Amino acid sequence: MPEVIKFRWDMVRRGSGEVVSNGIGFLVVDDQLRIKCDYLFAETRILRMKTREMGCAF
User: Fold this and answer.
1) Beta strands 35-42; 19-29: pairing state
2) In 3D, which of 53, 57, 47, 55 has the Cα closest to residue 11?
3) What is the DSSP string of 19-55?
4) pLDDT given at position 44
5) How confident is the model at residue 58 (pLDDT cuts 50, 70, 90)?
6) What confidence tens digit (pLDDT) does each residue in 7-44 have?
7) pTM of the entire structure?
8) CA distances in angstroms from 26 to 15, 19, 33, 54, listed in the order given
9) What are phi and psi of 18, to 5 degrees?
10) Which position has the higher pLDDT, 52 or 40?
11) Residue 17 half-sphere exposure toward CB, CA atoms < 13 A
12) What are the φ/ψ torsions at residue 36 (nearest 5 degrees)?
């Protein structure tokens, strides 16, 4: 049975450390904690709402 790990993320400018985007992510991992899928969601308006899905193998 796969497990899900939820996390928050921030993207910052290298020089200033200013946060330019942030969001939430989910990792689907197997029983050995290997990543099977990842889902990333941007929450700020600076970057339009995007989702990314890698191929899943359950």
Assistant:
1) antiparallel
2) 47
3) EEEEEEEEEEE-TT--EEEEEEEE-SSSS---EEEPP
4) 67
5) very low
6) 999 988 899 888 888 999 999 999 898 999 999 998 86
7) 0.64
8) 28, 20, 13, 12
9) -65, 130
10) 40
11) 0
12) -100, -35
Distance CA 23, CA 37 (A): 17
Measured on CA atoms in the order 40, 41, 44, 47, is the torsion positive or negative? positive
Query: What pLDDT is attached to residue 47?
Result: 44
Q: In Å, what is the CA distance from 13 to each residue of 9, 27, 33?
A: 14, 25, 31
Q: Is the separation of the CB atoms in 49 and 23 below 8 Å?
A: no
- Both tokens of residue 43? 């929450």
Where along the chain do its domains lie? 3-53
Q: Can you give the pLDDT at residue 17?
A: 87
Phi, psi of 56 (to 5 degrees): -105, 140
